[in-house]
Design goal:
Blueprint: H1 11-24, E1 30-33, H2 37-44, H3 48-55, E2 59-60, H4 65-74, H5 85-99, E3 103-107, H6 113-123, E4 129-132, H7 143-155, E5 159-163, H8 168-175, E6 184-187, H9 191-195, H10 204-208, H11 212-219, H12 221-252, H13 254-259, H14 271-298, H15 308-321, H16 326-329, H17 336-360, H18 369-398, E7 405-410, H19 414-425, E8 431-437, E9 453-455, H20 460-466, E10 471-475, H21 481-492, E11 497-501, E12 512-517, E13 520-525, H22 533-567, E14 573-579, E15 585-591, H23 617-625, H24 632-638, E16 642-644, H25 651-657, E17 673-675, H26 690-705, H27 709-722
Parallel strand pairs: 1-2, 1-6, 3-4, 3-5, 5-6, 7-8, 7-10, 8-9, 10-11, 16-17
Antiparallel strand pairs: 12-13, 14-15
């Protein structure tokens, strides 16, 4: 989740593994971090360099129930529970005292080192602890960081606890990992203060049920209100973005599911799924008919025999309306909110058709309105648990122990590992992964879902012959040469099913999706979303909205033109060459907000920056309120721009960044926009570093991949709200 490989372990198992690591005494040190919601939100706003450092930790545990809840919503493998740094500090310190393992703690207030060491020894009998308390201005790479390394080398501890808070503790531990003379480095924040009773922890029942955050908020409201209230809202935004990324990752597996077309009916074009769709449609139709007849029977003034015709009509219409809702129940992970919305749409269609039939037949007055209203309102309430039972029926049917198939992987690459995790976490697929064969060790950071290595590739043929194996998945990234052909020939002389796991990220490309072109399966990397009716609807919205906004803003534009004309010499409008759709140069118009200076001798256009001396006083106001962008609605009317899309950059900047940011020119697959997804997500203004430009391009490509008219309208509303309070505007 959130770009991090978080270990899905119970607390006791995590603690046992960490104790074993400390006892083993291996070098270099294994670094363990325990992020919470606040960490993840701050990490999302950090530089790419720091994110890479954080993700390179040897083990990451979830310290916070929101992470656990989030994993159960969309995670590939739901977390069984939280693993807090405070609990790990106590458990590891106790075990260190019992096993005579010395520890070293970096934390506490300066001058309290001896006091803290004695307090730890008193709190944990037999523990040998040394404490180093740096100043509040501790620099992980500075003098105090080096002094900490020197003192650790002298004391030779088994475990180092770094209690400095994020991001200092993670930066120090990960940067100096190779030089730390210990087996285990734990980044645990304020854990020592909790262990020594300097801060009180919540009662156990609050910890167990995930309400410790509430206890801490009530205990320290002035210090923690921002973390638990403001940061929680930002976490929700981050969660929504991660859900979109999770959906993309599920989409990457679509090609695998299509090729593996007989996987327990999950591929929805098989006869298994067609039969299941029919059964679910009939169940829903019977349920709706029964609800109607129950209402007619309960209401004493209604004649039940009069509703028989409506029941038959409702049954026939609902069979058609609900004919493929079973597809959504066969998904690997059902999205219940989406399913309920789908059910409501189908039921509304059914009820509308029945009402229309009664109206055209002129017999509506003969039927009780109370019965019809009761049928309308109660049906969704009853259908929801019925669909839940259908889902349970499908899971039971496809995952019955006697029907599950056993599978092994050969040439185990990242794509095969992702598939293995999905199979293990999805009972409805009816497949049990046994292990994998490969000549290499799995790279660190690749989640194998607990799958064990069964041997080298050369052993696969014999092992499969001697064990019950129903399916063999072969990773195409490594399946080349004579060995792969020999294995394939041997498997063809058996009864196992053979599946090839494609490399859906060729040449390091991201966001590759499955598609069919001329009835042929293909992999598509970054296709434009504006084809056919999508292009027509996008253009129609641009024309209507730009015309309306130009008429509405015409008085303001006249005032802006007068102000610009009399504020400084030069033209009212400023036009600059930019790249449009397809990389074609276009002229983009704005109200001039800078002095009319000649171009520099080298011809390089400098980006506007904060407190830029070239900006006039009137121009500063126009830029801050985004009024300088109003003439671009004429570009929209002319068809060279769109209201929503990636913001156009100067030609010189395009030529510079296209060689520095991979995939930069892909943003020009669509028309540039007056506002965009990047601008409403904080990526507006000067891109003074490459990291900022990379983030902007990532957001632009996200918009292209996920475009919809709804997203355009959302961006327009967000832009309107940001106009008067955008801190990035200058």
């Amino acid at each position: 989740m959130f770009g991090l490989d978080i270990l899905a372990l119970e607390y006791h198992e995590a603690a046992s593994r960490l104790v074993a690591t400390a006892v083993a005494g291996k070098r270099p040190a294994a670094v363990v971090v325990t992020p919470n919601v606040d960490h993840l939100v701050r990490l999302d706003r950090a530089s790419t360099e720091f994110r890479n450092l954080y993700a390179s930790a040897d083990a990451i545990f979830a310290d916070g129930m929101p992470l656990v809840w989030a994993s159960r919503v969309f995670g590939t493998l739901p977390l069984p529970g939280r693993v807090t740094g405070a609990d790990l500090f106590v458990t590891l310190a106790q075990r260190a005292g019992e096993l005579d393992l010395p520890i070293f703690v970096i934390g506490g207030m300066p001058g309290e080192e001896a006091t803290l060491s004695a307090a730890l020894a008193a709190r944990f009998p037999g523990l040998r602890a040394e404490v180093f308390s740096p100043s509040m201005q501790f620099d992980p790479t500075g003098t105090e960081g080096q002094e900490a390394l020197h003192r650790i080398a002298l004391s030779e501890p088994a475990i180092v606890f770094v209690c400095l808070g994020m991001p200092k503790q993670e930066r120090w531990a990960i940067v100096h990992r190779a030089r730390i003379s210990a087996s285990l480095v734990m980044c645990v924040g304020a854990a020592m203060e909790f262990a020594l009773g300097q801060k009180r922890r919540a009662p156990y029942w609050m910890q167990h049920n995930g309400f410790e955050w509430l206890w801490r908020l009530l205990s320290e409201p002035r210090r923690l209100w921002r973390r638990y209230l403001v940061q929680s809202l930002r976490f929700v935004r981050l969660l929504r973005h991660e859900r979109a990324e999770a959906a993309r990752r599920r989409g990457n597996l679509q090609l695998i599911r299509v090729l593996v077309s007989d996987m327990a009916g999950v591929q929805k074009t098989t006869h298994h799924a067609s039969f299941f769709n029919g059964v679910v449609a009939i169940i829903c139709a019977c349920t709706l008919t029964l609800i109607l007849l129950v209402w007619a029977g309960v209401y004493s003034e209604a004649r039940i025999e009069a509703f028989n015709g409506i029941g038959l009509l409702g049954f026939a219409v609902s069979v058609l309306a609900f004919r493929n809702i079973g597809q959504e129940l066969l998904d690997i992970r059902v999205r219940w909110l989406s399913l309920v919305r789908s059910m409501l749409r189908r039921w509304a269609l059914t009820f509308a058709v029945v009402l229309f039939a009664l109206y055209t037949a002129k017999v509506g007055a003969s039927f009780s309105r109370l019965v019809m209203i009761g049928w309308l309102l109660s049906s969704p309430v009853v259908l929801t648990p019925v669909l839940l039972l259908c889902r349970r029926m499908a899971v039971s049917l496809y995952s019955a122990p006697g029907l599950r198939r056993k599978a092994v992987f050969v040439f185990f690459d990242e794509e095969a590992a992702e598939l293995a995790v999905t199979l293990a976490a999805s009972p409805i697929l009816g497949i049990t992964p046994l292990g994998y064969f490969d000549d290499r060790d799995v790279p660190r950071g690749v989640n194998t879902g607990g799958l064990s290595k069964l041997g080298e590739v050369s052993k696969a043929q014999e092992w499969i012959r001697n064990h019950r194996v129903d399916m063999v998945f072969i990773g195409l990234r490594g399946a080349h040469g004579a060995r792969a052909q020999q294995l394939l020939d041997a498997l063809l002389d058996s009864v196992v099913s053979i599946y090839f796991v494609p490399d859906y990220r060729p040449a390091g490309l991201r966001h590759v999706e499955y598609a069919e072109l001329a009835d042929m399966p293909v992999l598509v990397a970054y296709e434009t979303p504006f084809l056919g009716l999508s292009r027509v609807s996008k253009r129609l919205m641009d024309i209507l909205m730009s015309t309306f906004l130009l008429m509405l803003a015409s008085p303001v534009m006249v005032l802006c033109a007068i102000a610009v004309r009399f504020s400084s010499p030069g033209p009212v409008l400023f036009h600059q060459k930019r790249y449009g759709a397809g990389g074609v140069e276009i002229s983009v118009y704005k109200f001039r907000s800078m002095r009319n200076d000649p171009l520099p001798e080298d011809g390089v256009v400098q980006q506007a920056r904060r407190n830029d001396p070239r900006v006039t006083p009137v121009g500063a106001f126009l830029r801050r309120t985004s009024l300088d962008e109003l003439p671009q609605f004429f570009n929209v009317l002319g068809g060279s721009m769109s209201i929503v899309g990636p913001r156009p950059h100067a030609v010189q900047h395009n030529e510079l960044y296209r060689h520095q940011v991979r995939g930069y020119m892909l943003r020009h697959k669509v028309k540039p926009g007056i506002t965009g997804w990047a601008q409403v997500n904080g990526a507006r203004g000067e891109t003074s570093t490459l990291d900022k430009m990379e983030k902007r391009i990532e957001l632009d490509l996200y918009y292209i991949r996920n475009w919809s008219l709804t997203l355009d309208l959302r961006i327009i509303v967000m832009t309107a709200l940001l106009v008067v309070r955008d801190r990035h505007a200058f």
